[in-house]
Amino acid sequence: MDISIKQIEQVARLSRILLTDDEKDIFREQLTGILGYIEKLNELDTDNVQPMAYATSLQNVFREDKQESSFARQEILELSPSSAKGFFKVPKILE
Amino acid sequence: MILHELSANNIKEKLIKREISAQEVVEDLFEKIYLNEPSVKAYLCLDKEGALLKAREIDEKLSSGAKVGLLAGIPVAIKDNICTSGIKTTCASRMLENFVPPYDAFVVKRIKEEDAIIIGKTNLDEFAMGSSNENSAFHVTRNPWNTDYIPGGSGGGSAAAVTADMAFMALGSDTGGSIRQPSAFCGNVGCKPTYGRVSRYGLVAFASSLDQIGSITKNVYDAALLLQVVSGYDGYDSTSANIGVPDYISGINSVSGNLRIGVPREFFGDGLNTEVANAVTNALEIYKKNGAELVDLSLPHCGYAVATYYIIATAEASSNLARYDGVRYGHRSQLSEDNIIDMYCRVRAEGFGSEVKRRILLGNYVLSAGFYDAYYLKASKVRSLIKGDFEDAFNKVDCIISPTCPSPAFKIGEKITDPLEMYLSDIYTIPANLVGIPGISIPCGFTTTGLPIGMQIMGKHFEEEKILKVAKLFENETDFHLKKPELI
Amino acid sequence: MKYEVVIGLETHAELDTESKLFCGCCTKFGSEPNTQTCPVCLGLPGVLPVMNKKAFEHSLKAALTLNCEISKFTNFDRKSYYYPDLPKNYQTSQNYFNIGNNGFVDIVVKGKEKRIDIHNVHLEEEAGKLVHPEASGANYSLVDFNRAGVPLLEIVTQPDMRNVEEVESYMQALRCILLYIGVSDCKMEEGSLRFEASISLREKGSETLGNRVEIKNLNSMKAVLKVITYEISRQSLLLNKGEDVLLETRLWDDVNSVSRRMRSKEESHDYRYFPEPDLVPFWIEQEWIDETRATIPELPVSRRRRFVDELFVSDYDAGILTEDKFLADYFEECVKISQNSPKELSNWIINDVLRELNERKTNVRDFVVSPEMLVELVNIKPTIGSSIAKEVFSEMMNTGKGAQSIVKEKDLAQMDDTSELNAIIIKVIEENPKAAEDYGQGKKNALAFLIGQTMKATKGKANPKILTELFKQRLSASSK
Ligand SMILES: [Mg+2]
Ligand SMILES: [Zn+2]
């Protein structure tokens, strides 16, 4: 199944990645190839197979509801590209 | 005495006997790094100052007669997708070029507690996505055996550093073969433990249900040593197994050839390089000579492993990498920001390389509305079938032996334009990640052109001890692990 | 109106826990921005979530109380969307296997019972908070992640409500239940309880649903009711004109009392749900369900009924007493330790206790007057009179001291010793011969005056009953 440029644009929007026209072409071709290869899974009848969603057999893993100290705000904000007045700063969000 | 050529354990023994000092070890190692690093380029960041500081601390401990840790004085390299407090952790990505984590990964905390010396952070394919190291945003690490060749990926930096005697041991991560494949290509011992054996806390996630931290070392003993330290329960990782860790170190001192070794047909078929096939077949003969029984096996669904993997790994990756948006840390676009969506799209276009973009796009595609059942759910079901194959196999055998990779290291640039071809180079390592079982790659020969060949031993969940023993048995009989590349 | 209104509600309630859902950060409200954060709740590279047991138990308890079927197997899914208040750009939530499904809440509207079906109850993580600077020309927004990762319970109804009254009754019933079982403080002013409404209109008698409008983030019950009223008229206007109601998400603008378009269905999110691989699945065995069920207290509806039937409190009073679980507990404790009639205790609580609590802007949980103390006061009331009793009560609130000791300390006990009182009466008659005379001549007012004078002399402590008797005896004797 061939992927269209429109589909690439749509998935790029979902991925929040700006693509150049060249990239769109290349990714369209490569993704078509990879998805074509993936098609081989359809050779298998999996109707009665339970999916394996977890790589572990663990279950019911909890932590107790206990407070631990948070990180110093300075240390956290230092990581950020833009901050002000103790907040992280982003372009204006219109709701 | 050439210190850097010794194994990690040899170094530790000499330190404890006070034949050498930790400071000498570090000085010697950094001299070797200055010689070899320009041609190998294994590191993204070196911390000589920090290493010397820690070395002096250990020397003082030793001279005062204080107790020292299991990794006392051993210089260790860390793959740059494992968080080190105060030391940049870039994942070889522009996105995290200047990111200095405010916390240590569980494994980093553990090796520090055991008195290891952290030398620096090693190169990798960006966010551990790749099989050749060519996807690093900063530079390509070269195979010390032949610098025209790739060292493997994604942990090529760690593997090359150990091979070129620029580290005594290294920590890596393995999502589809990123420890075992570069170890095979560089002639090291690379072990991916069972999923859940080593905490992933602080490992920058690529694919959460597949990622596992492990060791790259010069021999099996050192692998046991490093795994002993990093294995075990961590309350900060929900998938960390709360079960006891056996004494790997004493385990490998008592190996026996009385084994049933599974030899899966599917791993010796089409596409396997003849030299690799011969080396592994010869290795199997050595086991046989030592009393092992070889059992012909079929793992019928393994042919679907790569397809399954590229759905699950990319799906998980697309969401794990969503957090890189320029808000709280990491790259932020220099272009004007009037709109948050534009900011995201630019930050991510500038911050990610093409392999990462490709996988994010693929992952979002397979998860997008209407495709979930056809891709993700289907892959999860096939994953179940592959797991079943291994369960059946392990009812009959103690371990499974195969080539680590279908071919030896390839040339830089050889596969870079064909992602699918590149993906298929992980065909033998991927199943262990999908199933969650441990696998170790050990050197088992060389090609006529002098490139190392690796053999993979896979075991049941949490039977690292057993595969280490099987590996040790072979190492005791051979000297492939002792060969050194001629670099300078 | 020729249309039938179809309303469904999604409720988000912050769960009452000490630490966040996946990390140990404090959940206290109102701290300085970004002071309750850590690598985990900021979504730093390499971090992993670990489930808060209390939050999970709270969710299970809520699901059971809301009469849900409990999934034996439950797990968490990642819900992907980009927003700057969402640290990982996915929310760990539940989609495929919610903790509770197919429940219901019974409500009473205009004396009639109605059952509102619950589609599902699930646990998820809270997002951070965006702050939009007021300054004109400010081209940026600010993000505070203190709330990010606080455990959040989402309760989704079926589109079962048909008018504003039902919605109001449902919201109140739900709030009451969550407070009763102690899983959320439901403080609307702190955003602990928020609603999203979906509203559509259809021709009466029609079975097909009309185009649905979703309205996000309603921070008060009032706003919910306003937006529904607004949407009913907006949508019916459109339909009357023969126009289509667009399938869209709208925001409620509380200042201008209008709803505004946020995004249409075509632009709506593709959440790309898949199982959260960093958490393990959860199995809820019957034993766990039974244990949890045992911790669910009697709910307001049945408690109210019991107060009326067994304690003979009026339905109105029982309603007030049971609105707040802690008040109802307080009342029941008083009843248990007191010989007085529940009616008298309920009067005290509804009139005096609630008034004082309101005036002092506090609640019964932090009330200094314990049930024991209140009962003690009610017990000694006959000996001090009701006006002094009220004074004592106020003093108890101020000092936290017991009624007896206040009475003793302030010497407020009633004088009922006849010889002592007689001595004072004689004095008062002597000083007011005119009044005594008037009484003798049948002027009944004179007695009140004399009693008033005596009260003044005793600082109100004279037992008025005994006093009246003594005056009557003395004055009638002297007039003979
Ligand atoms: Mg929700
Ligand atoms: Zn936190």
What do you see in this structure?
Chain A has a domain at 5-42: Orthogonal Bundle (Histone, subunit A), CATH 1.10.20. Chain A is flat. Chain A is an alpha+beta fold and 95 residues long. The mean pLDDT of chain A is 95. Chain A has a two-stranded antiparallel sheet. Helices cover 36% and strands 9% of the residues of chain A. In chain A, strand 2 and strand 3 form a beta hairpin. Chain B is an alpha/beta fold and 488 residues long. Chain B has a single domain, classed as Amidase signature (AS) enzymes, CATH 3.90.1300. Chain B has 16 helices and 11 strands. Chain B has helices spanning 8-16, 22-40, 48-63, 106-113, 156-163, 180-186, 220-230, 248-251, 274-289, 305-320, 340-351, 354-367, 373-394, 419-424, 430-435, 464-477, and strands at 43-46, 75-79, 117-122, 169-174, 189-192, 212-217, 260-264, 293-297, 399-403, 439-446, 452-458. By secondary structure, chain C is an alpha+beta fold. Chain C is 41% helix and 21% strand. In chain C, the strands form 4 sheets. Chain C has a 9-stranded mixed β-sheet with strand order 3-7-8-11-1-12-13-14-15. A 3-stranded antiparallel β-sheet of chain C has the order 6-5-16, with no helix packed on it. Chain C has a two-stranded antiparallel sheet with strand order 4-17. In chain C, strand 7 and strand 8 (112-125) form a beta hairpin. In chain C, helix 12 packs across helix 15 (464-479), helix 13 (433-440) packs antiparallel against helix 14 (445-457) and helix 14 packs across helix 15 (464-479). The mean pLDDT of chain C is 91. Chains in contact: A-B, A-C, B-C. Chains A and C meet through strand 1, helix 3 and strand 3 of A and strand 2, helix 1, strand 10 and strand 17 of C. Strand 3 (87-91) of chain A pairs antiparallel with strand 10 (140-144) of chain C, so a sheet runs across the interface. The structure holds magnesium ion and zinc ion. Residues 93, 124, 154 of chain C line the site of magnesium ion (MG).
